[in-house]
């Protein structure tokens, strides 16, 4: 249509008939777009970190247990070591790491204090890259082998037990024969964890050591599997279920329902924020446009007298808001991009973060913008903006020409 | 003889709240092609109303109106817009021009709506602006032109796509008498050279002198209709 350039040219010039007014509304929209994009990035970043941390904190992407273990994680619910079928299923390209663990409730005691904990028997080499523990030891050493006789204690728990590196502790639990099993360990490493519950709630020893202590033979409590991506795990889960039909194969979304809830909740919060910001902005936009339309009633009458079809008049007023929105989105996105780039190192909330950390939020949040969030924010502002402007545009196109012209 | 405008029994009653204001009563009128007609009469006699009805900007309460053989009173909005775009040019008393467009863009505007190509548009606009004596000012916006210059641009725009009919409602009302005379000479020139029918209204005796036919309205009725050529 060869009228489009005409409409755009007129719309553009109309916008700049009152530069302060246009700049003001532009500024409001830029601010709105900026806040939406930046907030989305921080919300997404915080959530992402929380999920990744939880996956890191032993959840992994998929876990395999004996049926019943998830309801009652005791020693009676145990798995045989992975057979050839399961090993083949785990050897495919979409699995980046997996390991077997013994995981039972236990009590750890020093000469002064004792604490209820989860005793985790790990395969130190396989656990590298699968969970946080290999990188978390800040004093002493990590475990060397599956039958390492040493024990890793969280820093906070060590303080609570008034013990430390090189000292001995006793671990007590129930063995496979429902007898009390206890054994003394030397603390060979102290680890950090976040949230704090990781330090106070978990104690790590070698898998073979644990099996021996608990008379498990070669059975284990769980297999943890890390996939190449945490999304689209359906195929992997199906395959593992087929390879291990007697066991309970579950993705992280089932294992950590609270995370999924948090993901949904943060989506809802963002949407509400979008709508609040957007409503405030659109009032300004509609008001400005209505003002501009009322001032120009005579002009719209003239357009009709000249034979300009009402839909073109509508198109012209819409073009004004489209240009305004496009400008605001461009500038707002650029500013948001610059802001996020300059804060790429993360924003440190530790001043108010004590509460946050308890819930598994990191005090340092790294903003993260996903294509979907970005597109949603932009499309939302654009589409709703145009919809909001339909009314002023329709008003402009609807004036009866005579009344419009005779009004001076 | 070919007629451009025919009115048969045209009445217009405005309703203001509960009061009915008769603006035109039972108007019968034929305007042949190439005529140069002046509507005169006191204020409130219905000159503007008649011009607006002929141009399809408003609908009559009763009666029939034809422009170029088409029934204006029966047309839908879209068809009316198209009729105005292709067959009728308007010149109003003031504020005729689109403020954000330059003089030449204003003249090109109608052609652009008609879908005339850019080159032809510019050529025609330049030619007509030269004819109305504004060629040097073609890049000025209306705000930078005097009242007389603005009216000349409006005439240029009304005439540029050679409509059948130009309706001008008191085109000289805001001009001094010298400028008004020049504008009327321009209209007459356009009437002769471009073969366009003109109907204009005025209060001004001097302007009436230019007409070839003088119609006088009073209280919404035609009380006099004289040929002057
Ligand atoms: N929109 C309207 N609503 C109500 N009455 C109207 C309207 N427009 C015109 N009238 C009335 O119709 C009558 C004719 O008005 P019109 O404007 O046609 O007169 P006119 O001859 O053009 O007057 P003038 O010389 O002052 O321009 C007047 O009584 C006027 O008050
Ligand atoms: Mg009038």
Describe the structure.
The complex is a heterodimer of chains A (408) and B (229). In chain A, 54% of the residues lie in helices and 19% in strands. Chain A is α+β, with helices and mostly antiparallel strands and 408 residues long. In chain A, strands 2-3-8-5-7-6 form a 6-stranded mixed barrel. Chain A has a two-stranded antiparallel ribbon with strand order 11-12. The longest helix of chain A has 41 residues, at 19-59. The mean pLDDT of chain A is 89. With 229 residues, chain B is of the alpha/beta class. Chain B has helices at residues 47-54, 77-87, 103-114, 118-131, 147-160, 177-194, 205-208; strands at residues 3-16, 19-32, 36-40, 62-67, 70-71, 88-91, 165-169, 197-201, 213-218, 221-227. Classes of the chains: A alpha+beta (408), B alpha/beta (229). The complex binds adenosine-5'-triphosphate and magnesium ion. Residues 14, 16, 21, 23, 41, 43-49 of chain B line the site of adenosine-5'-triphosphate.
What distinguishing features does this structure have?
heterodimer, A: 408 residues, alpha+beta, six-stranded mixed barrel, two-stranded antiparallel ribbon, B: 229 residues, alpha/beta, Rossmann fold, four-stranded antiparallel β-sheet, 35% helix, 30% strand
Any low-confidence stretches of chain A, pLDDT <50, length ≥5? none
CATH architecture assignment name of chain B:
3-Layer(aba) Sandwich
Give the largest chain-chain interface (CB within 8 Å). A-B, 25 and 29 residues
Helix content of chain A: 40-55%
Overall morphology of chain A:
elongated
Looking at this structure, what is the CATH superfamily of chain B? P-loop containing nucleotide triphosphate hydrolases
Main beta-sheet strand count, sense and barrel state of chain B: 6 strands, mixed
